[in-house]
């Protein structure tokens, strides 16, 4: 297969694209892939590091208020379409797959104008602006949440496939997760993460609840702070009573998140779509605090979807406190039957075969042409 991937701005768009690329390479050895992104986006660093050919176009997002910058964006879009057409004519892909972000707009639109099959993948429950626009032109749409389907009711070929990053989790080694944390196998622990950059609100709430950890005998807590908050958080943990501090493990970043996640008893986290795909593929009970600082508040519907299924509890950041968080953690960690019930609900939402489902949808679109 000759495949063009496009998606950028955040890891939530980039990693699903890379997962699709890996699936194609495994299913069809000798396939040729090309990734089209922007020079300023995170993809310009992540994709070449994966050994994939990378080309760039210049594009920016539409502002929600009247602005001269929007005029420049329209001009960049037109130029981006022209540049994308040139790249596509040269590469001659069988299909173009977009996973979100502004860069997808001109690339997928250009492919549709050239008669090349196109597929867009939506990670969140509520579609982003670019994917809403592209759904009018794409040959097909794949969604990560079943709750997304009504948003694409007018699309002829839309399928609930899941998020392809989930497919990488099935091989996660739980024993390696414990070993990397210096914990004995089977040690119950709560994993807290605010994403790669960390989240101050989560860190502060967890620090406020830590004195209450003494009531949860034998339970450890792994707090992934993000680089910005590591030193100050580590200092505050050192000031805790020794019997609590010895059960709190403060890390700035986790390089082996699949293994650590597989070993965890429950998780406290934001509600980014790709991370939730990993959580549900492993069936980890969760307390979710969606970030209010994202476009269209898109994390809240993600969290609500898991909460409605019984796989998670949701706490809005405005309602977050140390006492409230401790109550949620205590109720879950003290009740093995509840944890198993949440884990089963989570696994029912998991889509470990998502990458394969998307690959099969791609073949269908190619053969249809």
Automatic annotation (TrEMBL):
Residues 190-353 form the Glycosyl transferase family 28 C-terminal domain. It is found in: Cell membrane. UDP-N-acetyl-alpha-D-glucosamine binds at residues 10-12, 124, 196, 299. GO terms for cellular component: plasma membrane. The keyword Transmembrane helix does not apply. It is an enzyme of class 2 (transferase). This is UDP-N-acetylglucosamine--N-acetylmuramyl-(pentapeptide) pyrophosphoryl-undecaprenol N-acetylglucosamine transferase.
